[in-house]
Amino acid sequence: MQYLHTMIRVSDLDASLDFYCDKLGLVEVNRYENEGGRFTLAFLAAPEDVELALERKAPLIELTYNWDTEDYSGGRNFGHLAFRVDDIYGLCQRLADAGITINRPPRDGRMAFVRSPDGISIELLQKGASLAQAEPWASMENTGSW
Length: 146
What we know:
Blueprint: E1 2-10, H1 13-23, E2 27-34, E3 39-45, H2 50-56, E4 60-66, E5 78-85, H3 88-97, E6 102-104, E7 111-115, E8 121-126
């Protein structure tokens, strides 16, 4: 398992970049804009982690700016922790066998979400290429929020 990023939703991308980069000293290493989804992702790394972040795409802070305004009350501005895993199906099965709800099953062989006992959303991403779709995951519905 490899730690990837922590996602934080921001209401003003410029103000957030000013804080995290100009004031705190992090470095923006990548940006992704999605017109269809109406959001921008800015990926930041600590100065000593820039080379590692560019090579491995981790460890990062992901600032998520949704173009349509939304009130992020109740901690909704904190998104999730993300980990790259060797076998998403195997890990999800071990978690399910341990009584953990798979909130967003890995239907695509690539991505799943679970929650910690305190409700923190955890994103699991398959290392390398997506695995071939497989049951029971391919037809499993989402459970709760993720």
